[in-house]
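All the exercises in this workshop are built on plain-text protein records. The record below serves as our worked example for the rest of this section.
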Amino acid sequence: MTSPTLSREAAIERTGWGNRFHPWQPRNACFWVYVAVVGYGSWYAFGLVNSQVRVYGPALAAASAIFAVYGLLFWWFTARIDRYSRQPVGLGVAAFVWGAFGATWTIAINGNSSLMNLYQKLFGQDFALDWGAGLTAPFFEELGKGAGVLLLLYLAPKVVRTAYDGFILGAFCGLGFEILEDILYALQSAPEQFGSHQLRTSLSTVLLRLLTGFSSHILYSAVFGAGLIYLLGTPGQRRRPARGVLLMLLAMLLHFLWDSTSALAQGNGTVLLALLIGITLLAFAIVTAVFQITVRPEREAMRAVVAPEVASGVLTPEEADALSGGWRQRRRYRAGAGAGAGAGAGAGAVGGGGRRRGAKGGGGSAERRRRRHRLEAAHDLADQLAAAGGQETDRVRFTRAELARYALR
């Protein structure tokens, strides 16, 4: 029988949880590829902005401010769902920068333009207008964002271990791509009506992108990133080529459908609206299913890491359920369900998947606040245990002492 301590160490090793990411790797060829692609994209973006900012500065400033807030909200959400074996912040930043400057300006804008020109020459102007976007963007944009996940896999092989890591990094790549692409579209719409109403025309584009953008690049590249890790495999993720290819193709198919809605609707407004709603719902259904599949091993790893703490009475089984469960388990714990299972309530087997135990405790706002703090402290303890490879360190003992300060009454 495997002891809880050995299971903890195995889970930390498998997920790469607690390992650090060092961006400066001059002896790694992937590092120079990353620098070259992002550097060229940044130079390209700077040249474009520099040529427009004197004339369309107000439109650019307004669009940048709005999409900055939009990006922060999605960054917060993506960081929130990465709550188990968390990715280092630097890795998320690297993925975002790749999506914003590398995938957008170096890969997609050049690849899309070249392939669009080819479609015009081969099939004519009408075909290119109707189907060009749908038959260019899914290739260069999804492959471009996926290239960021691939590079980061080889820049941080001890950190990027699971399909869920690919899911999260893909989402950050997509977020960066989404923000910069939206700002570009807003800037391109500013000259309409000879630029006399640049704020009004650009803000109309901003509003449209805000309403539709949340279901596009972030979702597609999250699915693509998970598929890429399944396809390649890692020491912590068994190769599943069929599943990997399927997810990558699904991401590209969703992108094709979204960019081809006008051509598919053939000018029928009702059909167009139905397609937009249907594709959005389909995208959310697929990304939710991929999330549920990829997050399961992460939750099992969290449960394995905290299992010895439950056995020693530091944490309760309910807290282990809340840490390794979904939002329902966390909400139930914070609300005070399972009263009487406070800290130090004794050892118990980890398990139960958040099943209801006992009557609702409540305890008022002070008790709920204490539970919230205790859950955050328990998560910090899991992070410190992972960083220490499951060993006892001063940081682990300090975090455990902090956890005891919030013992439930």
